[in-house]
Amino acid sequence: MSVKEQIRPAVEAPLRDLGLLVEDVAVTPAGKRRLVRIWIDRVLDDTGDTTSVTPPLTLDEVADATRAVSDALDETGAMGEQPYTLEVGSPGIDRPLTEPRHFRRNVSRLVTLTLVEGEPVTARITAAGDSGVTLEVPATKKDPSRSVHVEYADVVRAAVQVEFSRPSARADGPADEHDDDQYDEHDDDQHDADHDDADHGVDPAEEH
Question: Which CATH number goes with the domain that contains 159?
Fold first, then answer.
């Protein structure tokens, strides 16, 4: 089993206790060390509400997740003896939407879908369910705006589009916190002091 395959089961339980899940894991060489990047996201509730905006992770949540991941990796020995640098953050908008929860997380955002058949569609997500997504296609000179439903099975690729001016529908949450990866890192050589700093998003490195 590779290091990457050992990391996910080691950190899933402590993250779940924080209401978070593992989105993806990457391990890359970085000189004599390894760079371990773990992308996390919220565990979405099961209320059946598919139209609300999922709030982005806060810096405090990322800091708590970083400590939980760091402790879990140390306790399980998943990383072995070679030193590594740990980065924990939320996915940026450049990551493709591949799961229903990705579409739910981006309700009200403008996305471009490449479909199995037909032309690509650029539209705004208005709702996302277990099997498909509802989109509001903007009006053109020839056609009025319209609502369309697309099954996930018909989507080859989906990506969020960067917008410099967001609609007022996003007024219930920060408009740009989810646009970039949020990382909380600290230096394990100054474990106690830097954990205090991490709570305020100050120190940018955690090395083991």
Answer: 2.30.30.100
Query: Once rounded to an integer, what is the mean pLDDT over residues 41-46?
Result: 75
Mean pLDDT for the chain overall: 79
Residue 41 to residue 88: CA distance in whole angstroms: 10
Alpha carbons 19 and 13: distance in angstroms, whole number: 10
- Segments forming the whole domain that contains residue 42: 3-91+181-198
- Specify the pairing of strand 121-128 against strand 110-115: antiparallel
CATH number at residue 185: 3.30.300
How much is the pTM? 0.65
Identify the CA nearest to 2 among candidates 31, 27, 20.
Answer: 27
Convert the pLDDT of each residue in 168-200 to its tens digit.
544 444 444 444 444 433 333 322 323 333 332
Answer positive or negative: Cα dihedral of 87, 93, 97, 103. positive
